[in-house]
Design brief:
It is a single chain. By secondary structure, the protein is an alpha/beta fold. Helices cover 46% and strands 11% of the residues. The protein has 16 helices and seven strands. It has helices spanning 9-18, 40-52, 70-81, 98-101, 105-109, 138-142, 154-169, 177-186, 195-208, 218-223, 225-235, 242-247, 249-257, 259-263, 266-270, 297-311; strands at 21-24, 28-33, 36-39, 60-64, 126-129, 146-151, 213-217. The model has no long low-confidence stretch (mean pLDDT 94). The protein binds adenosine-3'-5'-diphosphate. Residues 64, 66-72, 75, 156, 160, 163, 257-259, 262, 282-286, 290 line the site of adenosine-3'-5'-diphosphate. This is Cytosolic sulfotransferase 15.
Length: 318
């Protein structure tokens, strides 16, 4: 990929012109780069992150395919990490959106308008990205840093992104676009897609290095939050003590990070992020299976066939 990370904006624009491009109807440009579809707005940050990030062994990186529960995972990881630093009633989560507590590497750190220098973050650093495993900076694969990956049923991911795109672009919901967008998703053309490559790469990595890559499913977290919160804390090297368990600390963590609690906080209800988008766009329904309200039986059949084919033999299913 050359030395794109050191390119000027103008040079980057020239590179983008050489890449295959598809447009999501609401106006997002996706560029096909090294086998994956990246949003043009993050392209600079993606390349710069790939080129310059030096992972540290103590780093914890939260990774998701967009709309798979990133906000929830960030809230949980932040709360687990800081549970001894603040009483729950004084948690920064009560006044700050989870995305401002754990930053995206390709956006707020390496993007066009960074808000923080990595050097200013204390160790252990907790960071986030949507990058596919195969595109991670070499230092991440070589270091002992830990990765938590959360995935979600592709049908809910698809529907969640439809609504997100509409809010971001300030356009009304247009059901007639669903079919076209669904076709794009099934062709692999989706933000950081193809979906199946993203999930499978982390699934394999989690099986090869289970001590370094934790693989979680949104649906499992919903079904049995207590067990999965314990698994997450243990993986982070911060297991709940017997005393904490008996004091109901896990329940407190889950309550603070719950969809119902976060969505009703003033910051998430009425405030906007630095790009002028409402934080409420990260809290829609928070349910499993909402796709059934939007997709036809033939779409379901197409997705099921596709997932069976792509995940065959992997031991993973949705
Ligand atoms: P829906 O659009 O299906 O409601 P991401 O955080 O990766 O952008 O994913 C957003 C999805 O996670 C949205 O799904 C959102 O409602 C849901 N979500 C946000 N916070 C959540 C929480 N605390 N618990 C469960 N789901 C949450």
């Amino acid at each position: 990929c050359g030395d794109y990370g050191r390119m000027s904006e103008e040079e980057m624009e020239e590179v983008l012109k050489t890449l295959p491009m598809e447009k999501i109807p609401e106006g997002f440009d996706l560029y096909f780069y090294e086998g994956r579809w990246y949003p043009s707005i993050f392209f600079h940050g993606i390349i710069s992150f790939q080129q310059h990030f030096k992972a540290q062994d103590a780093d914890l990186i939260l990774i998701t395919f967009p709309k798979s529960g990133t906000t929830w995972l960030k809230a949980l990881a932040f709360t687990i990490e800081n549970r001894k630093n603040y009483p729950f009633s004084e948690s920064p989560l009560l006044t700050t959106n989870p995305h401002d507590l754990i930053l995206f590497l390709e956006d707020e750190i390496y993007g066009k308008n960074p808000i923080l220098k990595l050097e200013d973050l204390p160790s252990p650093r907790v960071l986030a990205t949507h990058m596919p495993h195969s595109a991670l900076p070499t230092s991440m694969k070589e270091s002992n840093c830990r990765v938590v990956y959360m995935c979600r049923n592709p049908l809910d991911v698809f529907i969640s992104f439809r609504h997100f795109a509409i809010t971001l672009s300030n356009t009304p919901f247009d059901p007639s676009l669903i079919e076209e967008c669904f076709d794009m998703f099934c062709r692999g053309v989706s933000i950081y897609g193809p979906f199946w490559d993203h999930v499978l790469e982390y699934w394999k990595a989690s099986r090869e290095r289970p001590d370094k890559v934790l693989f979680l499913k949104y649906e499992d977290m919903k079904e049995d939050p207590i067990s999965h919160c314990k698994v997450l804390a243990k993986f982070m090297g911060l297991p709940f003590s017997v005393e904490e368990e008996s004091q109901g600390v896990i329940e407190e963590v889950l309550k603070l990070c719950s969809f119902d609690n976060l969505k009703d906080l003033e910051v998430n209800k009425n405030e906007k992020n630095r790009n002028g988008h409402p934080y409420s766009m990260f809290f829609r329904k928070g349910e499993v299976g909402d796709w059934a309200n939007f997709l036809t039986p033939s779409m379901l059949e197409r997705m099921n066939k596709l997932m069976e084919e792509k995940f065959a033999g992997s031991g993973l299913n949705f």
